[in-house]
Amino acid sequence: MRSTMKKISAPNRALCLALCLLFLAWTAQAASGDPSSLILGMVSVTTNRLNPLIPVEREFMSLTALVYESLVELDDDYLPQPGLAERWESSPDGSSWTFSLREGVVFHDGSLMTSADVVATVNEILRLANDEASPNKGAYATLKYFVNKITAPDEKTVVITTSRKNFGFLYAMTFPILPQNYLQADNPPGSGPYVVEQFLPADYLWLSQNSFWWGGKPKISEISVLFHATNRELVSSYEYNRVDAVVTRSMTAAQYRSGITSLNLSYRTKQLEALVMNHRSYELADVRVRKAIRASLNLNGISENAYMGMAQRTDTPMPAGTWMYRANDEAFRQNLEEAKQLLDEAGWKDSDGDGVRDMVRDGKLVKLSLRFYVYEEQENSVRVNAANQIVSQLASAGIEARLSVMSYKEAQEKLEAGSFDLCIASFNMDTTPDPGFLLISGNTHNYQRYKSGAMDKLFDELRTSLSQSAYRDKLYQIQDLFVSDCPFICLYYRNGAILTRVMFTGARDIREPNVLRGIEKITE
Do 489 and 376 reside in the same domain of the chain? Predict the structure, then answer.
């Protein structure tokens, strides 16, 4: 077996030269159509350790997902499938789950995986999540809501007790398993289809196939990753054939269309963009005004014009095209006449003909004029572009939106203080299909101050639904009420792109963090 990975030392220039020669050879193979190796490009400037529990760059997680594995995997239908656990069962009330581990799983350092490794990994994730002194709670901090206790009755069995007695619990079991003696190591060994041979932060990563992988021998034997400081440099490497494929969330990728010699594969990120509406603002306390705002907007048009295909429209917090999504095209279709009728019913008229609706409130004439905040992105102005389109479309219905562009920190302060009317905000959605943190009364990211006893009850029922069908039915009811109450407006999930000359995956649903899922396809 291979020994655990090492970080390359600065004096080892001979090895660097050898690797450069290998890269040239791999490039020649790729040019001749040989799929046995692949050169990837990616932006990475801050990752200096491979420990998958505490990533610092989102795209980098697609690489560690090739090295480390979880108890449960999610398939193309976004449904739980056996990973390092070959089977599981819950107690009748869902308060405990028993996982039977796969036989013969070997870590890259040669040690056998046992239940002690799973228990130690979970406890380390919980330690990180509960460490108030640490700014980095880890990528799997929400596990603290799912695990009350974890035990190992024997070397191949793990029992977890939980207060989340529902089908969604399985989605929380998608965290990477590390050997118990390497939990805090910079570069711990994994059990996945690829082994790290060399890693030089901000420079390159060299992966080779794990011949001892329990899943078989991966088809692609070598993966080399060249890191870039900027997306401009990354795309330039692709254009000049220095790499076979690049993974990026940059809007620059939108200009590339699939053709004979190159493919543009979209992948769904976890980033949901939403138009948050403050229910404590008297104008927006009326559901008719919120629905009028929704009816005023051409959401598909905004997505296409601002994001050029680098976004996936969704009507609800659930990702479109998945088993849990409940579409309602009629409610989210732009309809200016409906918007105007709703505003008329709510008492907002344009009494002075200036194009902005008004009403008499407490003896004074007030305008339907809303504070609208948006924060800038570092490399582009797409969010501001989307906000300007919203301003223009709301004006067509007689709603004035006074747009202010600010920093992320300033916008966050406005949201937390409730000092806003409208705000475009993004939310990093959890792997578990449960948007309660956005919709339950008083919950952490319910910035719109939405309160609904009926919605709270539905989430209580969701969190006691053990079967997929029962869980889906509750999610459907939650989305129906979401459409009816219009607490906020979902705009889209942001997309990333894989630009590639080599079709290396057969995965139908490409998504974060397993962006490269399918690359480990077994040799036929």
Answer: yes
